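This section describes the prediction task in plain terms. A model, or a person checking by hand, is given the sequence of a single protein chain and must write out its three-dimensional structure as a string of tokens. No templates, partner chains or ligands are provided. The sample shown here is typical of the held-out split.
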Amino acid sequence: QVQLVESGGGLVQSGGSLRLSCAASGLNFNLHHFGWFRQAPGKEREGISISSRDGRTSYADSVKGRFTISRDNIKNMVYLEMNSLKAEDTAVYFCAANGMYLSLKTTTPDYWGRGTRVTVSK
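The expected answer:
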């Protein structure tokens, strides 16, 4: 059974930092692409960062230069380092995994985590 379990969310002040983690199990980690998506209140879920299985990364313009995605192929973990947080980063953050291809525009990956909430106060 595949599981993606996010952690690390919480309440932080504007300008602060958080590190999200996604623990993956039940799948061949090295053969999957992983991504972070978020959904703000009243908005659609959006892709913000992708870590491809070949090592490439991509970011949404809204987080480029502030967020960094990384993966640990030994520990089966995916991370999202978030710096210079803004109020508009407030959302539930989801980890996603896909075996074939994953982009910021993907809406139906093979697997979703249940999310971790990030709240940035002004």
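For orientation: The chain has a mean pLDDT of 97.
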